[in-house]
Specification:
Blueprint: E1 4-8, E2 12-16, E3 19-23, H1 25-35, E4 40-47, H2 50-61, E5 65-71, E6 76-82, E7 88-92, H3 105-111, E8 114-120, H4 127-139, E9 147-151, H5 161-170, E10 173-177, H6 178-188, H7 195-205, E11 210-214, E12 220-224, E13 227-231, H8 244-257, H9 262-277, H10 288-291
Parallel strand pairs: 1-4, 1-8, 2-6, 4-5, 8-9, 9-10, 10-11
Antiparallel strand pairs: 2-3, 6-7, 11-12, 12-13
């Protein structure tokens, strides 16, 4: 029996100025985890259309394990515009395949073999996928070393306070960026304190093992009960930042699963995401110097 690391949620095409690239945080996460030598799997849904077929073929060509349902909705697309600072702006199409991920026997079987999962808020904008994600989390084994990562990704208002609360209650590792933390704090009613204090509040309130806060060029933090790790962001020539956060999460979780301490996992995550920023698209091949 394999202990899988699962990325669950949206699988889609990022339509960038230079052309389309496969994206979606769960696939990015699962792909990068696989590059660190761990058995990973992406869970999503595509339409019975050429874009969906191409996603499945692309994942297969990358050697990425997948549980991709074919459903009677169009394959997801996102129009991505890159601003002058290299920051992506998204126009995410609605009522698409990944909004309608079915809960199947195969998915339940995978859940029972899952050691770590990463899911976000975007894939829960529709009730079908939201309930599937919840059922998957419920079917996972309850072990001390099981990692349940909620990677907050606030996009276009596709989130509610109820969904965020439920997801933070279900996870034991929360990943959030500084802009999302400000938005969540306003929603939860404690806007007037500094970012670190907000993190300590969330860590305690939801009984988290860890809270990861990324602050773009201003570095990143990993909060654990009684300790905080800080790492500056390396200065690199940025091609774009698409998928950089997902590669950070993948490298961090892969390192933890390999038994590395938090500080070492944090350093690997920062180094990996910096490399991804130097390449176009979300799924570049990582150099062996990172994944060894």
């Amino acid at each position: 029996m394999k202990d899988y690391v699962v990325g669950m949620g949206e699988a889609l095409w990022d339509v960038l100025p230079e052309g389309k690239k496969i994206g979606g945080a769960p696939a990015n996460f699962a792909y990068h985890v696989s590059q660190f030598g761990l058995p990973s799997c992406v869970v999503s849904a595509v339409g019975a259309d050429p874009l969906g077929k191409e996603i499945v073929e692309n994942f297969t060509s990358k050697g990425l394990n997948q549980l991709i349902a074919e459903v009677p909705y169009p394959t997801g697309t996102v129009q991505v515009e890159i601003d002058q600072a290299g920051i992506p702006q998204y126009d995410i199409k609605e009522n698409v395949a990944w909004d309608n991920i079915p809960y199947t026997d195969a998915l339940e079987e995978l859940a029972r073999k899952t050691r770590a999962v990463c899911f976000g808020s975007l894939a829960q904008r529709n009730v079908v996928s939201r309930e599937t994600i919840g059922a998957f989390l419920d079917a996972m084994p309850r072990r001390d070393d099981t990692l349940v990562v909620f990677d907050v990704n606030l996009r276009q208002g596709f989130y509610t306070k109820e969904t965020l609360c439920d997801s933070m209650t279900r996870c034991n590792i929360l990943k959030i960026n500084d802009e999302e933390l400000v938005a969540v704090s306003r929603m939860f009613g404690y806007p007037g304190i500094d970012l670190q204090d907000k993190c300590w509040i969330l860590l305690g309130k939801y009984n988290l093992r860890m809270l990861i806060l990324t602050c773009g060029i201003n570095g990143s933090y990993v909060f654990t009960p009684g300790h905080v790790s800080f790492r500056p962001t390396p200065k690199v020539e940025v091609a774009d930042t698409v998928g950089a956060g997902d590669s950070f999460t993948a490298a961090f979780i892969a390192s933890l699963l390999k038994g590395k301490p938090v500080e070492e996992a944090h350093a690997k995550a920062v180094e990996t995401s910096a490399f991804v920023c130097t390449r176009n698209g979300a799924m570049p091949t990582l150099p062996a110097s990172l994944t060894d």
